[in-house]
Each structure stands twice: as structure tokens, then as C-alpha cells.
## 1
Amino acid sequence: MAAHRVSPSLNRLLFAVKYASFQSGCCAVHCNAQYSTIHTPSEKTFDKILIANRGEIACRVMKTCHKMGIQTVAVHSDVDSSAVHVKMADEAVCVGPAPTSKSYLNMDAIMDAIRVTGAQAVHPGYGFLSENKEFAKRLAAEGVAFIGPDTHAIMAMGDKIESKLIAKAANVNTIPGYDGVVKTAEEAVKIAQDIGYPVMIKASAGGGGKGMRIAWNAEETREGFRFSSQEAASSFGDDRLLIEKFIDNPRHIEIQVLADKHGNALWLNERECSIQRRNQKVVEEAPSTFLDPVTRRAMGEQAVQLAKAVQYSSAGTVEFLVDSQKNFYFLEMNTRLQVEHPITECITGLDLVEQMIRVAKGYQLQHKQEDIPINGWAIESRVYAEDPYKSFGLPSIGRLSKYQEPLNLRNVRVDSGIQEGSDISIYYDPMISKLVTYGATRAEALDRMEEALDNYVIRGVTHNIPLLREIITHPRFIAGDISTNFLPEVYPDGFKGHQLDIDTRRELLASAAALYITAQIRSQKVLGDLRVSSSPLECSRWELCAQLEDGSHSVGVTKSGNVYTVEVDGGKVEVSGQWNLASPLLPLTINGTHRTLQCLSRDASGRILLQYLGTSFKVRVLSKLAAEFNSYMPEKVPEDTSSILRSPMPGTVVAVSVKPGDPVAEGQEICVIEAMKMQNSLTAVKQAKVKSVHCKPGETVGEGDLLVELE
Amino acid sequence: MMAALSVSRSSFGLLNGFRTSFRTSFRSLGQVKHGAVAAAVLPTNLQRDSRWYSVSHLSVKERIDKKRTSALAGGGQMRIDAQHKKGKLTARERVELLLDPESFVESDMFVEHRCSDFGMEQDRNKFPGDSVVTGRGRINGRLVYVFSQDFTVFGGSLSGAHAQKICKIMDQAMTVGAPVIGLNDSGGARIQEGVESLAGYADIFLRNVLASGVVPQISLIMGPCAGGAVYSPALTDFTFMVKDTSYLFITGPDVVKSVTNEDVTQEELGGAKTHTTVSGVAHHAFENDVEALLNMREFFNFLPLSNKDPAPIRECHDSSERLVHSLDTIVPFETTKAYDMLDIVKTIVDESDFFEIMPNYAKNIVVGFARMNGRTVGIVGNQPKVASGCLDINSSVKGARFVRFCDAFNIPIITFVDVPGFLPGTAQEYGGIIRHGAKLLYAFAEATVPKITIITRKAYGGAYDVMSSKHLRGDVNYAWPTAEVAVMGAKGAVQIIFRGKENQAEAEAEYVEKFANPFPAAVRGFVDDIIEPSTTRKKICRDLEVLASKKQINPWKKHANIPL
């Protein structure tokens, strides 16, 4: 929801940004644009635009279309027929069944939809057909405008090998490497040895981290070659690979460019995207803490040189790797709107989608380079439906039984394409939303992000908020000391959630105990006329036992009004709040500090699942007596999981490498599961013999499904 | 002993204070038979003298004291330790955890068994209170009568005295109008007592039957319960079990082996898993004693104290006006695609708090208790996720029993309908789906409590009639826009109406257009309104407010004759 403002000064722009966010509470669609616009209503663009995408980006594009008075057409697969982007659009056309190859990548059906609806232009969003030269060609042939660069630029930049050559020619810094097609694994090893390890093997046609592998020796090179070519073939239908020097400890910083069809090009500053897992971005910010004005200008100018070299028009992104000495190397150019574009919009006040539409219609850029500001600081967290405790995020699926975006907070923008009741399915990207916060300073933006993550209610799917919150509060991140290796360096043994210290443990236990007592007291409040009078306990002090994973803690609680004074492990904690037992959010004041906790579940046996500092903690609160009796209860022996291989996520079985009776070594690959286009190799955790195999290639499996049993 | 009860604790204090005076006046009564105690304390010289030689030197005061201590110790520390070792709590510990602190009022602590055969009359075979602890107490302030069988005394076996104690509190519960909770942990009949024990069972059975529909009766099986003993839990309204430590069977594995030559373990024959998934005898199973008892407290909160009380209303933090947006998209477009009825139930009821009854048995129907704006309601729903939500023998019986409980105890019934019909097949027909299906029909039809029905999708054929339809005196019947009320699905209908004709597809489309929507039912007034799913909670809450004063009386009868 962006305010309409005609040519405001840049100072006022910032105000508009805040205004827009302040108004967000009444926004019908849960999306809040943190940008303003200098849209001129008299400037005629298109009457109707078809958005060849789904999810948040389709909604994002439609929002600008609505603002510009442009009719929108959504395309959707059959399972998406009640998706948010379909409801938001003026018209919607079903283009096929759930698998993307049959719907969102189905050019014939989409071309039909364009003809049927009479759309004059197509915005492709990101992914799917956004960088597909074939699609751009077909649109051009029918006289439909493609809201993106021209075909030749897509072709030039879409191929990583070719783009590198062009970049070199345009005097853009590039990484040493082998620019060519690698045909066999042995050839890959030889090239890798020439360049020197470590090397990066990636799909020539790829992007988004798919089909990418890093190799530190010959064996890994062979394996990487195999994986990358398979993934490249399945994701892009093109198994060409390239190999280049892998820059250790690099930062990933990209420059947003915007160009028109008249040879004008601007750089809209950088985005710091170093926080990644498996080469996919997790947290982004603009600007970067690392760049000085000189480097920023140098990078910006090289990006513009490259754009001009390929006669680029529309919005695009030039990705660079930056080493610790601030040397930067061209990585690739994305000829589309990036996922993380909102943070650029926040700090520059530009609506990139609007600019793309204008440029596609043939208008000249409205700005000069010196008009492009860096106003404040913006941070984006990608909220994913995935389990961060498994390799920093393995996809999870489910139905959003409860979903509430933190739009009650100021300076928060949430770009999402789902709502309460939506399904996160195995067919599409598991992204729930992009949570963007904005502030005059980085500290302000970070504080707001912390608050926003705490107030974000997501139930029904596993999500990565625990990880996001840990990242943005980590001292290294706060200090700006990051690289693309941030996650493996900070969490070498994998992400384990927030680690409690003495104070936070006390706070957590105190909150849980107070919630428990609230529920206990409420249980006695029977209303109405009673035939047999009730005799509730008058109690002012409770002796409890609270159990966390690390053991039992003695807890004493006294209550006065809404304030609980809780003694835990010899420390005193005062907790107050509204104590609404129906609300998912628990806005509390703990020892004078405001904190929002979330109650994820609560049962009759005293088990309380609380989301505290982003991580969910299992607390069990029992009366002293129940705890004492509980000590007699036998521990139920959990299933021995070392000889059972279960699917860590929902997906499709791609390959099963063993059969019953086979001996397997520890770490040996047993089968490969593909989910959301990522192949995951599952390995044996011990040396054993295969007892039975419960899956076969091509089968769809759910999370926790038994795949293989070992003896 | 840590499970010492408050009542006894305070009594000790009192008694100790009087000790000296008692000692001087009555130093007589040591080993008299229990039934004679009242007569023995009559202060006549004759009696005092006549008993002088047969009794100990303890005062009455001291003897009361001693008896109480002994009663509290049950079968002794060794047996208590053995009970703990098995992962079980003692009878008294269970009562203490089940009830509010300091609320237990024990009765019959001095009752002892009356058997004099097989050396049972010996002192060491007498345990004050015998093998059961009985009394009354409070759960969250609300009155309840409790008995808890003590496995440490003769394996919790049922003597005449044991039965008499249970009967006494059941009679009191009936007079007052308060529920009875039985904690069963008994090896069976007290064989030494023979027919006396059998009579005891029958006395309890009779009371179970008379109390049925008058006060809620709950059985929690926390150990063995075998032979005739199983019929007491079976007669009560709800039977809950503890996993791995409780068993219910008519005859144990040894007898089974000798009679049918089947090899079966106790667990397989009558464990919690068997009864909650296969036989449908038990309504829920819990991990251990502590969880079971804590859950009983929670469960008890849903129930009225008797058939004279309305469904209880608890303070509610969940707004009755809350819109549930996720419901607008929950029913899939494809009519053949399943969804989880529990998702609907849990988002509509207060605080997603749903106590499901028989969650693992006949899963094609969902039943359980919840609250709407604080008021207890019974929820019945077809579960499209399991067997398409069809009605079969087991689901009909499960549903019927639940509906009848709700009706007996003034609990409004909310029914969510997505039913493609009754399950066809020889297994069902031979099994008597006709008479079993009739039970559910009967239960809904006779129920006079407020009945609200929501048709979420399919309501086909006879199953539509059964599922608390308007025709069975449904008070408020809603349809969601996705509802289809019809005799059968389009395909089947078209095959009959247009038999032999071409253009079946066209005919099918016509049928879908005509019937696969809520209008045919709505124009006839068979549903009162077609509502947006997101408003369902709000509407139900408002309707219940109005229906709270509903009065409906069935024709007088001695009792009805449900097709059993």
C-alpha cells in the first residue's frame, strides 16, 4: 500500500515511506509496501498486464499495477486456484496442473492466456520464465511487451560463460576460471587442478544456487560434477557446467541497476547478501556495512558499464563477490527483478516494478545518478517454510493454520503471497514471505526486525524464524563481520537454536510458570449459577517444578494482579502482561523489559511450548507433587533411529543406491530425495547391512516416512 | 509416607492432643473384629471387663491413630516400592494428584474385610480400608466422588468390604448429584471370599447402571482389570487407560491359550493400544499415571456434575466474534480431495482446545469435547481424511454413544457433515450396518439438547439424514457454499437417471449444476442459511446463546428401545 505522491522532495519521500507503513494495519492484503512513488497518472503505460508468476512476487507486481490503474491477469496452476495472487488479480487463467513444468513454465498455455485476456504486457517476476529468452521471443513475435530486458540481453547474461566474456570486455573485474563447457568429470578435475582448489562448479544456465557445488579436491570435483549436471538438467534442461576459482571467505554484494531503452542507466546502490545457506540468500540488507563510497561508486560504475555493454533496459542486478581487501569480482547478472529488491526500494524510495513498467513502455528514466539516495537502512529476512535445525533449512510443508504478519509494527513491510489457511506444497518454493524492516540507522532496522520476528505468528508449518532471529542478533552480524561462510562458521555443528544463559533461562522458566498458573487459575473459574457450589482454592503462592531439556528447576510463584513474581534458581523475575490464554502472542514485561513470546502449545500435562527469542523451547511445568510422582514414571525408550533412515522432508525419491543385503559404510549414500528442486543425499550413520528398502525412485514421500532399514 | 492425605494429617494432630486421657479410660480394644468396634466402645463395666484379657494395652485414641497410619501405608512399604518400580503410583498418590490439594475427604478408612477362611482372619491379613480408597474431593473446585483400588493390598482384589465401600460413595454421588471417578488397579475377585466377591461386583454393576445418565461416570484403568471386573468400566461413560501398565480382558492369556490355543500377550490381548485402536472399549490412552491423572482433571472440567446441571461455562479468553479466515479455503475444489476435519474443529472452538474421544478408533468420525465461548459442547464430525468420512459400523457406534452422553448431560451438539454415505460391502452388511447405523440415527433423533449442524461439503443419501439433519430436529442447520446435499454423487445418479443414454458427461454436468451445491436444500428450508465458513464460529456462539433456554421433551416412556 503505497501512498500516491507526486514528485515529492527526497526528504518527504522518507516521510511517505513511514506513512505508508503506518497505514498498513488497514491494508486488505497483508502486504505493505515500504516505498513511495513518483508515479504520474497522466503517463500512459499499459491497460492490462499479465503476471506470469505466483506467490509473493505476483502479488507485489499487482500492487503496483493497481496503483498505476493497470488491470491485472493472474495465471495459476489448478492447486493455486484460491491462492492470494489469484484473488488479487482482476482476471485469472488456469494454465495447468500443479507441477511447474506443466503450469508456470507452460509457455503455450500462458501465451493462450495472454491472447484470451488481451494483456498488452507480461511481467515475469523472478524464476520461472523471467530469464527465458524463448519466452521473450514468443512475446515479441505476438507484439506483447515483456517487462524486462530485451532478448539479446537475457541471452548474453543468461549464459554464465558468455556473460563473463562480455563482462571482461566491458572492463568489469572477473574471477579467474575456465570459461567453457566441461564435458566429463575427468576434464573437470583437470581444469580444477589448473585453476587451483578450491573451485566452484556450477550450471552454466543456473541461478539461485541450484546446480552449484564447491570442491576442495579431485574426488569432490567428480561428485560435484555429477550432482551439478544432474540438477542442471532437471532444473534448467541444460547440463552445461563451468568451473572457476572459488574465493574463500567472500562477501556477496550486488548492485541494482536500472536502465531504459534510450541508453540511460543508473546504479541504485548495493545490497549485501552474504548471509546464505547452500548458496541461497537468507538475510539481506541495504546498504552494506562493508562498502565505502569509493568502492560503492566503482562497483556501481562497472555495473552500469556492463548494462550499457549489453544495451540493457529495465531493472537488473549485477552480482559481485567481494574479498576482504574490497577487491570485487563480477559473478553474474540477473536480468530480472530480484527477490530482495524491496530493501533497495526502502533506501531509495523508488518503486522498481513501476520503473520496469515505464521502461517497458519506452519511457526514459526519471532520475539522474545524483538523485539516487541512501536513506536509512533496510533489512530483509526471508521467512521460509523449512526446518532450520536440518542443514540450516530443509523444506517443510503444511497448511498455515494460523498466520499473522507483524504489520501492527511501524516500518515493517511484508511481501507475501499466502494467507491463513494457505497450503505450502511440495510443488513450489517454500518461501512464506519476505520480512523487511526499515530504520534511520542500521541499529534501528535491526531492533525492528527483532521485534517483527517475535511478533510473526506462523502455525502449521515449520519455519526458519529461530535461525533468522539468531542471525540478526549475532554479535558478528551486528558488527557487520560477515561472509558467505557466516552460517557454517558460526554454527559449525549445525544450527541448534538459541542457547540460553542464566538470565534468559530464568526469564523463560518464569514466563512458562506464570502462564501455567494463569491457566490453573482460569480452570477454576466456572461461571453461571451452580447447583453444587464450587470451592476454588485460594492460593497466593505456588511451588512448582519446571523442567527444561537441561533438567529440573525449582520455581516459586506469587501473584498480585497481573504481575507474577517468580523465583527461579535463586533469582527473582517479575513478569507481567495481559495473560490472554487464547492469543498466540504473549506480550510480556519481564523485569521491566518488553518481550513478545509466543505460546505454541499447552497441554493438560503441563507441557508448554514457548517461542522465546525466536526459538521454541519445551518447558514442562508441574506442581511439586506431580513432579515428585513423575520421578516414578518410567522413561519410555525411544525408537533406535541409527538403523532407520527416514525422509527428513517431503519430496520425491530420485535414486535408491542400495538394496536389501548390501553392506553400507558410515557416510555412504543410501538414497537421494529431491524437494523443491534440491537434491539431498541421505547417508548411513553407521556401518551396517541393509535390512529392507521401503521406497523406490519416483515415489513421493512425506517427512518422517521410513525409507530404508539397516540391521 | 509422602502420600499422606490432608484429612489424616489434621486428624493426627487432634488425636495426639487427647492421647493421655484416652489411655486411662479405654485401654481395651485391640483385636476386636471390625464390625464390633461401635459396640465395644460402649463404656459399661461389664464390657470393659469382659474384654480386658483379649485386647492390647493401647488406648482407643492410640488405636485410631495406629489404624489410620496403617491405612495410609496400604500394603506396606515393600509393596509400595514394588508398585513404584512398575512405574505406577499408589492408590493414595493417585487420589492426591487427581484432586485439588487438601480437598480429599476419605470415607471408610477403618473398613476391613470380613473373610475368615484360609487364614484371612489373621491380623497380618487385615488392612484398614482394605484394598480400596474411597471418598470425595474437588477438581478445580468442583465436587467429585472417587474410588481408587489399592494394588498393594491383596493385589487390589475385590472383597465384599471393598465393593461395599465403592457402593457407598456411588450412592452418595447419586444423592448429591456429582460424578464418580474410578481408578481401577485390581487383580480381580478376592478368591478367598468366593461368592461374596461376586455379589460385590454385581452391587457395583447395578449402581453403575442406575447412575448411568444421572451422574457422569469415568473409569481410569491404571493396572489390571480382568474377568467380571471389566464390566464396571464398560458400564461407565468413559474408560481411559494408561499405556503399558493397564489391561482389560475377560480372560487372560493363559486361559486363552488353554481354550483356543492362541498365543497372545497381555498387551496384545487387552492393552491400551488394543482397546483404543481395535476393540473400541477404551476412549483414550495416556503415557503414564501422572499424565493420565492430569488429563482427567482437564477432562473433568468439560462435564456437568449431573443430568440436572447445564453444560459448564468456563471463563473464556477467545472472542466469540472471532472470524476464522483459514476456513474459507479449507475445503478443496476437487470434491474427491480430502482435508482434515480436525483443522476445522480446532480453529472454530475456543483456544483450539479439543479433547478428542477415541482418537484412534473408527477415525472416519471425529468426536470430542470443546468449548464455545466458554460453554462445553460436544463435537461430532465426519473425517474426510479417513475412508472419505463414510459412516460404517464402528463409526456409527462411536458417534451414537457420544451423542447420547451429550444428550444425557445437557451438552449441546455441534455436527460437521462431510459424508459420502454409508460404507458398502458384505463385511458391513453381514456385520449389521443396518442396526448399527440405526444407533447413530436414533441418537441424533432422540437428542433434545441444542443441535447445530454445519454441512461443509458432501451430505449424501441416508447419511445426510442421519447426521443431525433438520428433519431430526436440528435447531440450526448451516451449509457452507461448498455443500452438496443430494441422494448420491453425480456420477452414480446420472448412471441411474440417464441409463443407456449417450452424453453421460453432459448429463453429469447438469446434475452437478442442479445438485452439487447448497441451493436444493436451502430453498426447501432444510438448511437455515448458507454461511461464509469464516463466520462459522461467530454464528455458532450466537446460536448457542439463544439455544441455552431450549426446552424439548420426548414422549413419556419407561425407556426407549435403541437398536442394540
Note: DSSP finds 22 helices and 18 strands in chain B.
## 2
Amino acid sequence: MSNSVFSVISRFVEEYRSSTPNKLKMIDAYLLYILLTGVFQFLYCVLVGTFPFNSFLSGFISCVGSFILAVCLRIQINPQNKRDFLTVSPERAFADFLFAHTVLHLVVVNFVG
Amino acid sequence: MAHLCLFSLLVLSLVLETQALTPTHHLTTTDVARLQTLLSQPFTDLKSAYYSVVGLSKLGISVADAAETCRFIKSNLDPSSVESLFFAAEASQALPGCEIPVSNDTRDLLLATVSEDSTASQIHQSVSALSSLGLPLASQEVVSALKARISKEDNVLTIILALQTASRLSQQAELGEILEEIEDQVIQLVNSIFSKKSWDSLSEAFSVASAAESLSNNRFHVPVIVSAQGPAAISHSQPFLRLQVTNVLCKPLSSASVLVESATATSSKSAILSQAPFTLRDGVFELNFMASQPASGYYQFSVAIAGDSRFVANHVELKVKVSTRVSINNMDLSVVDKDQSIGPKTTRVEYPAKAKASFMADSHQIFAMTFQLVDETTGVELTPHQTFVRLHNQKTGQEVVFVAEPDSKNLYKFELDTTERKTEFDSISGTYALYLMVGDATLENPILWNVADVVLKFLDEEAPSTIQAKTLYTPKPEIQHLFREPEKKPPTVVSNAFTALVLSPFLLLLILWFKLGANISNFTLSPSTVLFHIGHAAMLGLMYVYWTHLNMFQTLKYLAIIGSFTFLAGNRMLAQKAVKRLERK
């Protein structure tokens, strides 16, 4: 059993390494970073306490929001999805990404206190 | 000039219902004296001389130095002014032996003023001057001039002046008809003129004095003032009801005859007297009301004053109090057993003695008290307003007051049940002094009588031995305010450690990107690119500043500016990149 899981995972990693364009890999690295940041914030909250709660919420939501926006960007940039996003060029996707981030950060900074 | 009209002004300007009015204000003798003092002040000009002289003459008082005053008037006279002539003429007429020399020009001036073209006040002044100086004048001309004036100036002042002027003419019947309709106004006038008892100016004093004289001595209406001498109260020691009947100047009306039309008791509405006359003695009208043996209480008297057809407000309503002395009869004290197995021992106590033995009452017994309150002279039973029984504990100073109620036969009863009433007494046993308090407005001798001593025994001695006065007004315990405790914060070490931990993935990101080969080799230094990056950096900086200093509105403002700039630059930059990408393809 573990054999097949291990082989699936190694196969997946191999595929990923070879067939994913560099741009997407960079975005994936960014996604990992965001994920870790969020996890560490949550860990703090679990271990130490929820004071100040609003700060925790704003930080955590910032991570979640950024993750989602980056995922959207990745989907839109991916050349394999070009058929689904005929009207959206990569530049347009990036511009949307930036704009959405501005709004997100406005809200996050307002709430962090 | 208008001050003279004060009197008539009020007469005509009062809009009223025609109900029977009685004067509420008049001049007492002290008021008249004060009026006189004010009018006697030394005068500075012709106008004030006129007020003083004529005012005093209306009060019936002559001026101190008539010759000097006459000279003063003559020297201050200005023969070309109608007003000056008016003042001088009136003043000189009030002074004995003072004649103002009149020239033909003066007379012509005065006669010429009597025409439709002069104002009503000018006509009044000239007509008065002419009549005071003894010069002939044509009444018909005056009347026609006045009539024309009234139709031209349709206001109250004109009508008043016209009336006053007409009064200086020969006695005409039409004047009387007008005045007879204004009876009520006369009373209201009396009230308003004499309500103010101190007068500021000479003209005011003059007006009041002349009003008082007119109201006392005119041909039509003389208001009658009826006042009781002292309080309107009668008792056996003072059986006469005394009334003063005077005119507004406080001079007694000797020609009057005073009659009680009816006297009814306010409580029972039964008439005690009808058509009983008052007898005049020493200027005061008196009536022996006690002779009709009224019961004590309040009576409504309706008094009529006759004797002169000019009398106005000659029906008066008076409230008279008849007081009496009360005596307590048949005061019986007893201690009754609750189960009534032992008969009551009744002790009779006579006022003002005190019962010799004290009474004992404990939880099995009831202490009872009965008595009667009667009028001393007539023996009629009374029910005064206040009949209280007060129990006073001498040791503790506590007192409890109860009300004694009369039954249907007007016999007062008071019962004290120790078990029922123990809360009022705080269950404190001991000797209580019993007092009876009787009082009423119509009683001359209110009673406070220490009847007996009562020893009360209560079952449960729960109360403390000393009485604490109810602590309503002592300072209350101070409240300490508890400020909100700040939340427990973790130690700084932990916070710092986790901050470092949270920031650490950024390092990881940089490492990964480096490994992936991220570079900025495609960074074109075109202006839009540079500007975009600057704008973007500015937006991030704005976020930080927002966190530290600004509020949402300011941030939005700045964000709008920077954002639109960045948008334009970025748009340009991305368009260029797109073009480049498509070219590469």
C-alpha cells in the first residue's frame, strides 16, 4: 500500500518538475510561502491565545485571501487553460491580481488595529 | 396729556362679561397718605405743578403755599402754547384766589383750536382751559368738532378725550346714558387702578388721586368697598360680625344701609339668616350673628348695601367662620380580653386629669378608648378634622400616632391590639404615655391631653434595645470603582519568537525563487515601468502609514490619487509587455 502511495508521489513530483513552466513554479513557491505564514499564525493562536483576536483574524484572512488570489492568477496564467480564459490575457490577470490585493490589504490593515 | 386719560382709557378699553364683580383693591388710609406725599413733592415745571396742585385738590388737600405756587404758574406760562395754557388754567383753578390774566389773543387762540383740524387732545386742552378760565365757549361747536374728530381718528384714545371734553360742557343727558352701561367696567377699573400701591412718577400719583376722587364723587357710579374688620370670624367671646363699608378713598358711607340677604352654612346648605339688617355703630356696621346660634363651621354670607342708587358692586359674598370651644365627654378607657371571658374594666377620666393607674395590655388583651367631642356651649356633637391618639415611649423616645374614628353616632373609638400593631411599635415593650390630640380650624381650644400611661407587652422581643434612627440620610458606603483589568499578555519572548517564525517563510520564498532562477533581466527602464513600480511602492507605503497614522477616509483619498497614477502607468507597462510577448510568439 505504502509502496503505491510513495510511487504516486514520486511520479507526481517528477511530472511537476519537468512539465511545469517556470512562471508557475514561481507562483507555487509564493503559494507555499503564504501557506506557511498562515499556518504559523494559526499555530501561535492555538498555543498562546487569541489575544488580540482582531489582529489574528486580520493576519489570517490576509494569508487566506492572498492564497486565493495567487491561485486565481496561476489558473489564469497557465497556458493549458487558455481556452477557458480567451478574453483574459496574462497581463490582464496580473493587473486584476494587483487590484484585488490592494483592496484586500486595505481591509486587512483596517482590521489589524 | 395722555395721563389724564388713564382713567377714561381703562373705562372704555375693558372688554368684559357682565357678571357681578366686587372690587378686590382699594386705597387704605396709608395708601392715601402715601399718595399725598408723592403729590406734594416740589415741582420743577408747569406740567408737574399742574399734576401736584390738581392732584392734591382731588384728594381734598390744599397746597402748602398757594401764593408762591400761583406766582410760579404765572411766570412759567407760555401764552402761545395751548398745552401750557391748559396746565396753567387747571392749576390756577384749583388754587384759591389765583387768576391768570387772559388777553384777547389767548382767547382767540383757544377758540381757534376748537375745530375739526386740531387733534382730539388739543380740543380737550383748549375746552378745559376755556372753561377753567371762565371764558365763554360754544358747546355746539365743540360737539361738532368732537364728532368730526371721532369719525376721523377711530381709536379708543380719541373717544376717551371726547368724553372728557364733553364732561366739561354743560350737563348733557347723553353722557349719562353712556356711563350707565359701563358698570362692570367701573369695578374692573377700580381693581386695576388701585392694585398698584406705590407710584413712581408724579403723573401716576396724580392720575390715581384724580381717579379716586372721581370714583368717590360722581353722579353715576360710586363703587362700594366692603371689608370685614379683622378676620371674619365669630365666636362666643366675639359674637359681632363687623363690616366696614367705604368708598374707594376709605371714607365710610354713612348713608348706606347694610342688609344680610342670606347666610347659609357651606356644609349643610341650610339658611340660618335671611334679610337681617346690620346696625351702624361708630362708622362700623355690626351684626350679632351668635344670637342666631349657628353651629360651628363656615357660612356664606350674601350682603347687600342699599341707600344710594349710585352704589355699584353693592352685593358682596363673604365667608364667615364660626368657631367654638370643644369639650371631651365620657372618656372611657378599658382593657378587654380578646376572648372576652373577663368583662372590661372601664375607667372614666375627666379632662384635664390623668388616669391614676396605668393600664396593662399584652398579647391576650385589647386596649380600648371611647369618648365624645361636644361643643362646650350647645352640647352638639362635633367631628373635628384632627383626632389623633399618640403613644410615646419615654425611654426610647419612640412615638406612634393613630387616628381615632367616629362611628355613626359620633362616638369616637380607638382600639389597640398589641399583636396587630407590633410592627409600628417595633415590638418594644414598655410604658407608653397616651396623648389625645384634637384640632380643627373652627376650634378655639385645640387639645393635647395626656390621658393615661399604657404598659404594652409584646410577644417577641426581636427589636434591639436601642432605637436606631432610620439611616436614610447618613452617608452610604463608598463604591470603589474597579477598572477593567487589561488582558493577560504572553511574555515578550514568546511573541518575538513567533514573530520571527511567521516572518521566516519569506526567507524560504526568496531562496526558492533564487533556485528557480527568478531574475529581473527583462526589466526595461521605460518610464511607465519605472513609474508603475514607484506608484506600487507608494501604495504599499501608504498601507503602512494607514496602519500607523491615518484613518480610512484619508487613506482612500491618497489611494485614489496614487492608485489612478499607478493604474495608468501599469496599464501602459503591461500593454508594452503584451506587445512584446505577442511579437516573440
Note: Chain A has one domain: 21-112.
